[in-house]
Amino acid sequence: MQSITWTGRIISRALWNGISNYSTTTADSPHQKKRDPHILSVVSGFPKELCKSTKLRKGQFGDDAWFCARVKAADVLGVADGVGGWRNYGIDPGEFSSFLMKTCERLVTSGRFNGEPANLLARSYNELLENKQPVLGSSTACVLVLNRATSTVYTANIGDSGFVIVRHGVVVHRSEEQQHYFNTPYQLSLPPPDHSRSVLSDRPESANTTNFRVEDGDVILLATDGVFDNVPDKILLNELSRVQGERDPVKLQTVANSIAFMARKLAFDENFMSPFSKSARSYGISVTGGKPDDITVLLATVAL
Amino acid sequence: MVDVDIWEECALRTFDGEECTGFPQYVNEVIDFSSQYGSDISISYTAYNITGKPSKYPDYGDFPQAFVMRTYGKWWYDAPSRPEPIMTQNFGIQSQDYIDVSFEQKVYPEQVTLYETYNPGSVVRIWAGDGSGKWKLLWEGEPQLVGHGSRKFSPVINQIDFMTNLLRVEFNHSKLDYYTELDAILLVGSHCNNAAKASNNIQKDLCKIASQIKALNIDVVSDYMDMTTTLYSLTSLAQQYSSMLDDINQEIELSSRTTSGPFDSLPDETVLRILSNLDLVSLCRCTKVNKHFYRLASDAMLHTAINLKPYWHSVNYKTLEYLSPRCKYLQKIDLSWCGNYGQISPMQFISFIEKCGKQINNLRLDCCKFINDDCVKQIAVSCRNLKELSIRNCLKISREGFESLASISTFQRLDFYRTGIEADPLVKLLEQNPNLQHINLGSCVSLSSMDTVAQCLGAHNHELVSVDFWKTYSLTPLGVKALANCSKLEEVDLGWCLGVSIPGECMMALATGCRKLRKLFLAALRGITDRDLAPFMENCPHLQQVDLLGVRSITPFLCLRFLETMKELQLFDISFCDQIQDEVVQEWRRCFPKVSIKRSSQSDGIPSPFQHY
């Protein structure tokens, strides 16, 4: 009985997301008519603790945060995963990641963005330091930029969030995971001053940067580790291939929802040999099952 | 007859122009400003945030997305670093800060709306400029205290006769409780001249009246008019006219012979003493009275201290040319805010300084965009007795210019806020000036080794009374320790020196080294703890202003002890100190009514009774 109400809630959440994102994408449609190279993007996701988080905040799923911004020269997407360990110190991990993403969005839309995603992350991190209200915590982050003039995707990635670019059923480009040791990704952090010596803190400059020339119809998935740790690559690839060249935001949203839903289901499946458990075993840690985590899926197709 | 013309015109006119409706524009670009809370390497709390649509309104509170200035209230005027006012006899509403903003399209302004999202009421003037130095006042008013709540401020503005896309807003925040914050500025205007429209309306009215008069048929001469009486009245008028002419001629002759009336019997010194109470504009008007007044009102002794800042909107190179013959003994001059948009060229300033610079002690050139290396070099050559140099926001001065200043060794006050000064020339300058008392290096982002600067201050400048290191990121505890050698220090502003985040022993050193401290700003030094602040309670009994904004780990226990021990405390800013609850602050405000306890807040857009719509 309980499972039914659960699923019901999950589906309604997914729908909620679907509707909200559908409306934003349609609002942008005059832009698309110009036939500038652009990205058509939708969002879906779940917070880890569904029952506790009574309020859904825009741009956030639990401790995960995301943003999509569009300016004349570029489309910019980003995800960040707040490191949950800070909860024990009385710090809301979602605040850091959400501030980081919101500031990225503000920097992009206010025209203070030079097209370099790593620079964007660094500047956004700097704004954290400049805030009167101390925002503490740490977060992984991944930012992807489509430069319209060159039809090239520029990316910057810190930690274990990441992206996959799929063309006709083949992964043509993907991010590398940055890890200090198992389950401890690289992270941007602002620890409480009294802890600063004992905390892992990576400079924004340590971001892994790549660039890749995209083609019309390419599918881009930008997601937090909640997706990559739970959904096996094969299944993911299968889902992504379904939306090759998709221009209908509703269909795109359906697939995004299904990836998020799948990740959610597998995360709570105790008997499933998830990519996370496989990786743990390679480190000699014996675990089975998924990894319950916040899930954020940003799914996009390239239209040149 | 004239009337006929009007009637004809009335018949021809169609009175168009009704389609000219104003359209709204938000700020496109910030052209210039005098101060900002944030730093140039960031966007939080900077002037830039005033561009575009309102991002926070109607939310009320202290948000990084707004434009915030450096000061509020009377605190900076009560601090040890307060500059001595020049020419206090200038009247009118004083303004302390300004921002120049531009919009995409030039319009005849109809309405200007300011979105104030925190502590509203500081706007005192709104100007419209043509971009080449001509300014017209749109609105002026006293600073207000309007209470808490965001507001849209939209005063009734004057009509102007040119199209503009440049506005200047002037602020006076002396009445405010805390920092004011602005979200956006909306300019509504149209492409057609409303003043012309208004005159069009007058024309319309005139036509109406004319037609009414015509209906009365008064231009028709009646058949039975008494011609004899009419002619007689005309001749008597002619006789009166000739006698009136005689009167006027006599009057003119008399006035050219008389001098200044009772002023003649006073000795020159007394008249000069009286004239010295006049502001600059009145003084200039006096020179137009007669030769006697001209001689007295342009006396060099009346022109030893000149403040042109309140007249920035009408000062140009001609002003300098006009004043220079009178400035033989010029000692103090404030040219701040003047000469921008091409009104004074570097060459014109240089020739003024050459002529009148020899005796200058105090030179203030804040926000003078024309000041470049050549100007600074000329200052270094001509003003050999310079005690004060204030060049806030003068961004054109490079290393070369600053280096030339090292030839002066009489400095007591240097204000380099938001300039591009680097450490090497600064160190040379400091070594040359052992009598330096005040230095402001706030927001100087090119200072890459503040520790060297602080060490130099500690070694050479023992007369130092105030230092402002606001937002200089390269300062570390090492530099603060060196600064503690300056035992006469009364004011230390280390706000946002993020390099001092983990202070170690340096606060202890500062407290024991500088026992005269009256003002201590430690905003956003996140690592400051109770342990770092305790020494100030023991060693610095005269502390009056303390800013601990965003210092996360200080406890209510310490704050209470601070309030109890520091008997002279007046300002205590504990905004964003996470461990202190609002209720406790309320309690403290009751118990310590003499202390102004600041507590910044953020709230979402609940309409307040103070909102103006």
UniProtKB/TrEMBL annotation, chain A:
GO terms for molecular function: metal ion binding; protein serine/threonine phosphatase activity. Pfam families: PP2C_2. It is an enzyme of class 3 (hydrolase). Its cofactor is Mn(2+); Mg(2+). InterPro entries: PPM-type-like_dom_sf, PPM-type_phosphatase-like_dom, PPTC7. Gene3D superfamilies: PPM-type phosphatase domain. GO terms for cellular component: mitochondrion. Its EC number is 3.1.3.16. SUPFAM superfamilies: PP2C-like. Keywords: Hydrolase, Magnesium, Manganese, Metal-binding, Protein phosphatase. Belongs to the PP2C family. This is Protein phosphatase.
UniProtKB/TrEMBL annotation, chain B:
SMART domains: FBOX (SM00256), LRR_CC (SM00367). It comes from the Eukaryota. GO terms for cellular component: SCF ubiquitin ligase complex. Keywords: Ubl conjugation pathway. Signal peptide: none annotated. SUPFAM superfamilies: F-box domain, RNI-like. The keyword Translocase does not apply. Gene3D superfamilies: 1.20.1280.50, Ribonuclease Inhibitor. Pfam families: F-box-like. GO terms for biological process: SCF-dependent proteasomal ubiquitin-dependent protein catabolic process. InterPro entries: F-box-like_dom_sf, F-box_dom, Leu-rich_rpt_Cys-con_subtyp, LRR_dom_sf. This is Uncharacterized protein. It comes from Apolygus lucorum.
